[in-house]
């Protein structure tokens, strides 16, 4: 089955840039979605199809996807961005959705 | 108001059964595939199952295949997750979510319902 690997944690100072990676075999050929989950809350979609932002998501959130790595970038990091972030792809070989293990973003 | 509301969670003994519900409001749920995703305490998101717009087909993650069944009643704008032979490792918050094409992003999630399997 398809596996997505994320770093367990990423830290960044306010105003800096946080980058969260999601690694998978030839992930560049798949559409990657990213979700933000704050403690005690349901996940929220922040980037779809590699780089599209849903309505209401700040431009500070952006995504790229190429080769074996997809990346979610949070620019001008704010305290309110502290959360767990998950990447997701559709594995058509198994007809299963796959989530990465999640990355905890800490704002220093 | 656009929302998904889950219900039906609770405490159940190992080997027991439970039926979760997810009611959609503010939109026509039969335009969407619907999904169940679970999250064990302190752990990450894990996809559980999905069902076609018209209920004609469903897919399941390997750990629940053969024990869980997803269904929907579009007249009631509600999807269900029938869970049998529950195990301690099924303990989790269960979220429902919608997905337009079956392979699209989950653009709306419910708040979840907690299932605890324990003796």
Describe the structure in brief.
The complex is a heterodimer of chains A (108) and B (119). Chain A is an all-beta fold and 108 residues long. Helix content of chain A is 0%, strand content 45%.
Average pLDDT, all residues of chain A:
97
**Order of SSEs of chain B, N→C?**
EEEEEEEEEEE
Structural class call of chain B reads mainly beta
Overall pLDDT confidence of chain B = 96
Instruction: Count every helix of chain A, treating DSSP H or I runs of 4 or more residues as helices.
Output: 0
- Rg from Cα of chain B: 13 Å
Shape of chain B: globular
For this structure, the quaternary state is: heterodimer
Summarize the main sheet of chain A. Answer: 6 strands, mixed
- The strand count of chain B comes to 11
SSE sequence of chain A, one letter per element? EEEEEEEEE
Distance between the termini of chain A: 36 Å
Beta-strand content bin of chain B: over 45%
Shape of chain A: globular
Greatest interface (CB-CB under 8 A), with counts per chain: A-B, 25 and 20 residues
Task: Kindly state the percentage of residues in helix of chain B.
Answer: under 10%
SS element count, helices of chain B: 0
- Count of DSSP strands of chain A: 9
Q: Give the low-pLDDT segments of chain B.
A: none
Class by helix and strand content of chain A? mainly beta
| Helix-residue proportion of chain A | under 10%
């Amino acid at each position: 089955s398809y596996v997505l690997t994320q770093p367990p944690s990423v830290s960044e100072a306010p105003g800096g840039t946080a980058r969260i990676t999601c690694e998978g075999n030839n992930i560049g050929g798949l559409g990657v979605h990213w979700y933000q989950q704050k403690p005690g809350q349901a996940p929220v979609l922040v980037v779809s199809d590699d780089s599209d932002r849903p309505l209401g998501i700040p431009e500070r959130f952006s995504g790229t996807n190429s080769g074996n790595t997809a990346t979610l970038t949070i620019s001008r990091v704010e305290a309110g961005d502290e959360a767990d972030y998950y990447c997701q792809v559709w594995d058509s070989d198994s007809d299963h959705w796959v989530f990465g293990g999640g990355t905890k973003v800490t704002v220093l | 108001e656009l929302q998904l509301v889950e219900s039906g969670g609770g405490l159940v003994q190992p080997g027991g059964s439970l039926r979760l519900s997810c009611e959609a409001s503010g939109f026509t749920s039969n335009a969407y595939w619907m999904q169940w995703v679970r999250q064990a305490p302190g752990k990450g998101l894990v996809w559980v199952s999905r069902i076609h717009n018209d209920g004609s087909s469903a897919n399941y993650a390997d750990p629940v295949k053969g024990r869980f069944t997803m269904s929907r009643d579009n007249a009631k704008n509600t999807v269900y997750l029938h869970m049998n032979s529950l195990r301690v490792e099924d303990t989790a918050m269960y979220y429902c979510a919608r997905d337009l094409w079956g392979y699209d992003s989950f653009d709306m999630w419910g708040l979840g319902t907690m299932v605890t399997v324990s003796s």
